[in-house]
């Protein structure tokens, strides 16, 4: 039976009579374009609209150029739900659902690199280019023990610094690296993944009933095929439906 929104849940998620959905515009897998009126289109805007429909309120998109900027506004009455990667650092201020979809993160290495596997990368002297404050950057910050992270602003910035400074590896989401590898003759994308970026729906910590509703809605959306439908509808490659919550 579809999860129902009680008046308390509607009040928590739409205190201004609409669902204000924070959207990370930098994730090209989740936001694939804009509508005629300028609203973002893609899997995450479609998820937000489906949640608003279940609440019985209109959706208002609140776009952010980067996920970190979206997360920074938690608790500031700027958005009611935020659709970004669920990370422990962000979860200090945001209650996240389980992931509704996930994206493999791996490395690109230059031609002739001695780095042949994911495990080879975390070694002393290895310099990894990464987009600052991306969900996979937060994962690397917690888990890399020996290599050095070289942060840049934005995906293009990380790629350009990787090339210009002859860094050893470029961390990124596999679909983007598939594009980057075509620009660098002889470069290779390493097999496997160092993490999967889990895209989730978050709300303010105070919204306890709403957080439970959103978690149930996400599980329903995965099980019913709704998330898969959005991925197919927006013709996204490299995005997969996340497994059921444990």
What features would you describe in this structure?
The protein has helices at residues 7-13, 43-55, 67-72, 118-121, 135-143, 154-164, 174-180, 208-224, 226-233; strands at 19-24, 33-34, 40-41, 59-64, 81-85, 94-96, 101-109, 127-131, 148-152, 169-173, 188-189, 195-204, 240-241. The two termini are 20 Å apart. It has 9 helices and 13 strands. The relative contact order is 0.20. Strand 2 (33-34) and strand 3 (40-41) form a beta hairpin. The model has no long low-confidence stretch (mean pLDDT 95). The strands form 2 sheets. Strands 1, 4, 5, 6, 7, 8, 9, 10, 11, 12 and 13 form an 11-stranded mixed beta sheet that branches. By secondary structure, the protein is of the alpha/beta class. The protein has 2 domains: 7-101 and 197-241, D-Maltodextrin-Binding Protein, domain 2, CATH 3.40.190; 104-195, 3-Layer(aba) Sandwich (D-Maltodextrin-Binding Protein, domain 2), CATH 3.40.190.10. Helix content is 33%, strand content 25%.
Topology:
Layout: H1 7-13, E1 19-24, E2 33-34, E3 40-41, H2 43-55, E4 59-64, H3 67-72, E5 81-85, E6 94-96, E7 101-109, H4 118-121, E8 127-131, H5 135-143, E9 148-152, H6 154-164, E10 169-173, H7 174-180, E11 188-189, E12 195-204, H8 208-224, H9 226-233, E13 240-241
Parallel strand pairs: 1-4, 1-5, 8-9, 8-10
Antiparallel strand pairs: 2-3, 5-12, 6-12, 7-10, 7-11, 7-12, 7-13
């Amino acid at each position: 039976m579809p999860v129902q929104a009680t008046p308390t849940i509607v009040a928590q998620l739409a205190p201004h009579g609409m669902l204000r959905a924070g959207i990370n515009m930098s994730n090209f897998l989740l936001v694939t374009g804009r509508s005629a009126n300028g609203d973002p289109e893609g899997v995450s805007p479609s998820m937000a609209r489906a949640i608003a429909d279940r609440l019985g309120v209109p959706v208002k998109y609140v776009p952010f150029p980067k996920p970190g900027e979206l997360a920074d506004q938690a608790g500031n009455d700027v958005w009611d739900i935020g659709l970004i990667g669920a990370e422990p650092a962000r979860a200090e201020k945001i209650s996240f659902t389980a992931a509704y979809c996930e994206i493999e993160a791996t490395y690109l290495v230059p031609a002739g690199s001695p780095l042949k596997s994911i495990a080879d990368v975390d070694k002393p002297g290895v310099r990894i280019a990464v987009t600052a404050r991306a969900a996979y950057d937060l994962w690397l910050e917690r888990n890399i023990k020996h290599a050095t992270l070289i942060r840049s602003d934005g995906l293009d910035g990380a790629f350009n610094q990787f090339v210009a400074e002859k860094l050893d590896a470029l961390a990124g989401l596999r679909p983007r690296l598939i594009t980057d590898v075509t620009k660098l003759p002889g470069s290779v994308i390493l097999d496997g993944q160092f993490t999967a970026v889990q895209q989730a729906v978050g709300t303010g910590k105070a919204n306890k009933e709403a957080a439970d509703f959103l978690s149930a809605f996400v599980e329903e959306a995965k099980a019913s095929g709704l998330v898969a439908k959005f991925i197919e509808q927006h013709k996204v490659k490299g995005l997969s439906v996340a497994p059921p919550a444990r």
